[in-house]
Amino acid sequence: MSKETTQQECSVRVGPLVNIPGLLLELGHDPGPIFTRNGFVLSEFDDTEHRIPYIRGSQLLADCVAETGNEAFGLRLGQLAGPSYLGIAGFLARTASSVGQALEELVVNLSLHDEGGRCSLHIEGNYSQFSFHIHQPGVSATAHIYDLSAVMMYEIMRALCGNDWNATQILLTRKKPADLSPYTRYFRTDIRFDSESCSIVFPSHNLQLKPPMADELFHHHLKQQASELHKMQNKEVLETLPAVLQSCLLRGGCSVREIANAFGVQERTLHRRLKASGTSFRRELGRARECLSTQLLKTSGLPICDIATSLGYADSSGFIRAFKRWTGSSPAAWRKQNSRNQAPGL
């Protein structure tokens, strides 16, 4: 990754990661040495509210995968958690008056749990797509973070719609694993690997359902708490811009107007704020494309031409030129090198 793309590292609540020590023991491995060599002590994972650096947390997960050789480690980790592990964002979703409102609450409030990732809800006719995307650069074990996130999204929908609910399709960015059984046994629906996004696809009429824990007064109280927490985060446009850019890229549109609308400002205001921060829309879009492209090249088996299209390039040549400028290497060579240097399934 080039020096130009360096940005402040995000943090994440320990949340579902509290179950890592128990899962390691279940798989026959002592968690102590693994945590120590990654700069953690086990007691840090006693409290779901404890926050850790995003990249270091991902490196810990990568080390767990390498140590156990378990290609479904992220999937297994997700199955040990539930919506409550997301903290106030999860409780807001569960107490919402409808499934649609619950998912919108997660879009708005997931950053209170995970500053390095972003949810999005796309409604198109009879089917809707709820997605999660990592926007923090330099993250390890992205395949397993996406597996964990897919399970969390799936469990959230079951909590909102009932245990008999099932998705129409599960989309995973990771390459197709050698052993499909942990995935097919858990999701019980059509799974598409090598996808451009980590998403749950379901019938749009589900959005009208009333969750079993819907509670208007409690929900209002939680929203007030969430509002105060957001104020404490005091995010500037430049800090949240990578997440918005990458989300818009994956939805197929990333114009200045669309991004300005997402922030509720005029285009000229967005340009002025970026200039004051020493950057530009074009530069930040390039950073978002670089981060997304390295994720897709490392995690999926998507052809170069499909990755170029998903990033908004008219043809592969434009993407290849840009990628060489970012990394000094062609996409194909970079993929080959990084596939050789990572543990299976990372």
**What distance separates the N and C termini?**
18 Å
Q: Radius of gyration in whole Å, from Cα? A: 20 Å
Question: Strand portion, in percent?
Answer: 5-15%
Largest sheet: 5 strands, mixed
SS-based structural class?
Answer: alpha+beta
Helix proportion of residues, in percent?
Answer: 40-55%
CATH class of the largest domain equals Alpha Beta
What is the CATH-assigned architecture of the largest domain? Alpha-Beta Complex
The gross shape turns out to be globular
Low-confidence stretches: 1-6
Number of helices: 16
Provide mean pLDDT, rounded: 89
Strand order of the largest sheet: 3-4-7-5-6
Q: Any chance you could write out the topology, listing elements then pairs?
A:
Layout: E1 11-13, H1 20-26, H2 31-37, E2 51-53, H3 54-68, H4 73-79, H5 88-94, H6 99-109, E3 117-124, E4 127-134, H7 142-161, E5 169-171, H8 181-187, E6 190-192, E7 198-203, H9 216-233, H10 237-251, H11 256-263, H12 267-276, H13 281-299, H14 304-310, H15 316-327, H16 331-340
Parallel strand pairs: 5-6
Antiparallel strand pairs: 1-2, 3-4, 4-7, 5-7
Describe what is shown at a glance.
The protein has 346 residues and is α+β, with helices and mostly antiparallel strands.
Would you mind describing this structure in some detail?
The chain has 16 helices and 7 strands. The relative contact order is 0.12. Helix 8 links the parallel strand 5 and strand 6. The longest helix is centred in the middle third of the chain and has 20 residues. The strands form 2 sheets. Strands 3-4-7-5-6 form a 5-stranded mixed beta sheet. Strands 1-2 form a two-stranded antiparallel sheet.
